[in-house]
Amino acid sequence: MKALLNIENLHVTIEHKNILNGTNLVINEGSTNVLMGPNGSGKSSLALTIMGHPRYIITQGTINFQGVALNTLSPDKRAKAGVFLAFQHPCEIEGIRLGDFLREAYNSLYDNTPQQLSLKEFATHLKNQLNLLKISDSFVERFVNVGFSGGEKKLAEMLQLAVLQPKLAILDEIDSGLDLDALKTVCTAITAIHAAHPHMSFLIITHNPRILNHLTLDAVHVMRKGEIVTSGGPEIVDELEKKGFK
Questions:
Q1: Three-state secondary-structure class, residue 147
Q2: What is the pLDDT of residues 183-198, one digit of tens each?
Q3: What angle do CA 170, 226, 75 make, to 5 degrees?
Q4: Residue ranges of the chain with per-residue pLDDT less than 50
Q5: β partners of residue 10
Q6: pTM of the full structure
Q7: Most distant CA pair in the chain: distance in Å?
Q8: Is 18 in contact with 10 (CB distance < 8 Å)?
Q9: Considering just the CA atoms, what is the radius of gyration of the chain in Å?
């Protein structure tokens, strides 16, 4: 497999406090990866650092994405390069229809290029993704996340992922706050998107092994105290369930 993302010896501070302490991580093209670890181990910090959150200051190390030093790019350019981050707690946007939001997000990735879609072209693209995820057309008529249940907010994130079709999808605790049925729906969406786009890579951040019962994994990484302390196959999950993170 070809490496898509290669993080080497990454040290990060926030407000002069060390939060990542020599993190190393390789994500291969087309692979599904899970990042686990106890609360406060640095999982979300790693995701935000990859995406370029300005509060997270890299003091040492590199983030290489398809041969490009990702840490030299602004967050919008990282998105245009093909990096997507789904948030733990998506915000509500009153007055903006989800369908309109998705069209603007899609076309913003392709400013002044032939890949931008007209209203009619985007409507076809959006309809295809709604069909892929078995979501009703009425879903995108609602304001972004306004009045959405926890499961609907996460499903809206999955629809955004399907529409934008990035190279790397980072899903930060996509299972947070979901009941079993909603969790299965989200996992079914991830599986459908990956089947439709086999070259897309996933980094799924969680501390709950329940989600792993519904996904086919290529690699499991365990983080503790700002470092990835072990990586391997799905068998690591069995060890974690028996012994815990300690």
A1: coil
A2: 888 999 999 999 999 9
A3: 40
A4: none
A5: 23
A6: 0.93
A7: 54
A8: no
A9: 18
